[in-house]
Every structure is written in structure tokens, then in C-alpha cells.
UniProtKB/TrEMBL annotation:
InterPro entries: RNA_pol_I_trans_ini_fac_RRN3 (IPR007991). The gene is Rrn3. GO terms for cellular component: nucleus. This is RNA polymerase I-specific transcription initiation factor RRN3. It comes from Eumeta variegata. The lineage of its organism: Eukaryota, Metazoa, Ecdysozoa, Arthropoda, Hexapoda. The keyword Protein biosynthesis applies. Pfam families: RRN3 (PF05327). Belongs to the RRN3 family. GO terms for molecular function: RNA polymerase I core binding; RNA polymerase I general transcription initiation factor activity; translation initiation factor activity. GO terms for biological process: transcription initiation at RNA polymerase I promoter. Keywords: Initiation factor, Protein biosynthesis.
Amino acid sequence: MYSDILPMLRDPQLSDENFTRLFEDCSACVVLLGREVKPFVEVICDVTWLNRNDDLVALYSKFLLNLVTAHPYYTPLVMASLMKNLKVGGENWDENPPEELIFKWSNVHTIIAQIIAIMPMSSTILMQNIVEQFPYYKLGSYCNRAYVYNLIWVTKYIPALQEQIITAIINRLVVMDVNMVDKSRKQSIQNEAIFSMEIDDDETVISETLDFCMLEMLQWLQDERDSAMNVLCNVFERVILPTHGIRHVQFLILYIISINQQCADRILTNLWMMAAGCNGLGPGALATRKTAASHLAGLLARCIRIPNTRLIQFLRNMADWCHSYITATQEAATASENVKVHGAFHAICHAIFYLVAFKHQHLFMNKTNINFIQSLNLSRLVTCVLNPLKTCPPQVIRAFSSVTRAHQVVYCQAIIERNARQSIVTEANAHYDEWFPYDPYTLPKSGEIIWPLCIDYKDWLQEGDDETQYSSMMKKLEDDDDYLMTSPKSKIASSLSNCISPGFKSM
């Protein structure tokens, strides 16, 4: 009889009458459901129950609580069966899930909360199941979105697990992000016609899934604010920052620093400390320092809510650090030109070049700001023996060289040409890191929230332009400045007399 009842219970069309009889009998003899009848327990845990009336749901909930209380070793099995109900198939919603669906999910969350209340140590089992039950990222947007929505729901009644759950979500979003095919790779793959359709399908699925999951995370940040910000700052430093090449997940950080100045100060300061090597990251930290410099430059350039006084502050900090580094290198007994040895210096120089090029509309709007840029002595960075222009992405070099040349701040052309000649002679192709973490956000749904917080790059110089095109703009420089103020302690250079001309630099 025991063997016969198992296939009967697997029938999804179990009537309400049989459902009631089954779980009343199971509750009455729950102490007898030991390890030897585990197949039976597995079957009854998978019985369809969410779509039944309130009385039957209450009966099922009572049975599960009695089961894990009498036999704690069944807790992983029960948790797994409950989590499966939080990622069922369906259709995407616009703003909020349908009330009927929320009601079903609430029954699942009620049981989970009751189990955790009775057995606090079972939170570890729950967390393990949360990670294991995460849907495959190619399974579809609805399944992943529903799961993320419900995981955020769990954080509201089990706050002790909030950071662990958010870490699990961010880890999965990062996996989706790195698996999105970038444009250059996509073009090369599509040249092989046999794979083009498959790549397009995968790209669409992953893109849509990441988009809706990001939408849920942004909604969580908006609802929770203070507690969410502290958690996300921690997760950013552990998960997002060490990951190179992602293009979307890091915009969660841009969002929170846009709505909270205290969080912005923390993020920007920590990024600078990492990039400058002031926090003792230890051996093998070069990649993290370079990534931190890229994030710092991207946030300062792109985030519309960061005041330009912060831009001035960090530009000054970066320039002073680079000058100190050059001085220390020149005084060292053996100065190496190995890019890896001086990778942090190159990364911070690239951040300065990127910011000067990107924020030129503010940094060169009047004489006061131009004097500030001159006080940074960028010529010394450009002409030093470490040659940071050699490893800088070409598009940044072009924009930086054009803007600074037009305003007679730095002349880079001679060094650019010399680097190009050396590259031809040595037949070595320089490897440029062309990843800019906060390049334009491309996901459409979540982008409606992100786009208003981002500044678009305005390229006043087109390909082939020179400084003569700035002559009309130079005549219209205003004396007042609502944004950028230089520090009273800053030493303002009044001319270029102290600058070293790249064309006359000794080899």
C-alpha cells in the first residue's frame, strides 16, 4: 500500500477532499515520518497547495511546521520545496505583481518566517537554499525577476540575512552582466552566420532578464534607502569593484550616491583610498587599484548629483599623488619603465586625463577654472619618463590632447607621435584598457530610472579639429562660476613659462 500511494500523490489533480484527508492523517502521525520514509515526505512536500483555499493552506502550513519541529533533518527539504514556489512561471508585470500572485507568495513567506522563528539556526539552511535555487540566467526574465522580488521580500522579515541575500543577488546580476556579449565580440561572432541567430537570442534573453532584475533592485533602493545604502556599499566593495568589464550592475552605486550625499562621500573616498594604495590591499592588488581609479573617474564624470567641488577636490588629490610618485621614482636608485610596476600611477593619470576631457565644459568655462587646471601642472605628468599617454586609450588621448592644446595648458602631440613611431619600430601593439565603467546605460526599462541621473559626454571637438575652433568660445569666457571654485591654498600658475615642452624633451 505504501508503494502504491506514492504515484497517486504525484498526481497534480489531487482533490481538496483527498488533500484534507492526507494532511490531517500526516499531521496526526508526524512523529512516525522518520528517515526511512523520506521518499514519502519528498512527495508530500511537492504537492500543489498554493492555489487551494485558506483552510487547506493553513492545514498544509501546520503540517510543515510540525514536520520540521519533530524532524529537524527535514528542514533543508522543506526549505527547498518552499523556495521552488517563489520562481514559478508567468508573465511580467508593469509596476507591481498581481494581487493574486502576491497573496500566494505571502503564504510561502509566512511559513518561512514561522520556521525561522521556531528554529533560528535554520536561517543558515535558508541562505544555502536561496543560493542553490537561484534560476539559471537564461531561463527567462519572469522567473529571475520573481525570484529577486521574493528574495528582497525575505530581507524585510529576516533583516539579519539582508546583506547575505543582497550579495547573492548582486553575484547573480554580475554573472548576467559579464555574459552579455559586448558589441565588438558580437560583431566578430556574427560574421560566422551559423552562430549569429543563437547569439542574438541569448543576448535578448540575458539583456531582458538583467533589465527587470535591475528594476527590482532600484525599487528596493528607493523603498529602503538608509539601510539599503549601507548594505549595497559593502557589497559594492566586495563583489562589484573587483569585477572588471561589467557594464550595468555598477549603476546601482551611481543611483545611491545620487540620492544620498553621505553615501557618495563614503564611496568616493574609499575608491580614492583604494586607487592610491592607502588602505593596505596587499600583494596582487594592482587590478583592484586600477578598477577603483576607473570607477572613481566614471562616477565623478557621469553622476549628475555630484557637486563640482568634489571634482576639484579629487582632481587635486590625484594630481598631487601623481607628482609625489614621479618625484619618488626619479629619486629611486633604479627607475623601471615597466607598465605593470607603475600600473597604479598610469591608472590614476588616465583618470585625470579622462576627467579633464569629459568635464571640459566646466573646467574651461572661465579663467579661474583654467588657472586651476594649470596649477595641476599636467605637463609634468604627460612628459615624465613613465609616459602615461603610452597606455592611455586613444579616444581619451584625442579628447584630452585637443582640449588642453586649445587652452594652451598641455601640448601632447609630440609625445603622441613619438609613441606611435616607437610602436611601429618595435612592432608591438599596445594593450589599452578601453573599459569605462559608467559608459551609457543601455537597458531600456531600468534605464528610465538611471538615465536622468547620468551626464552625457559632449564632444565639442570632432575628428580632425584643432585649437582654432576654440577661438570663438575663448572670447565668450565668463568671469563668474557657479560650480567650480579653487581652494585658497592652491597655487595658481599664471603662465606656461614653467611647463616643459614635449617637443624639446631630451630622450
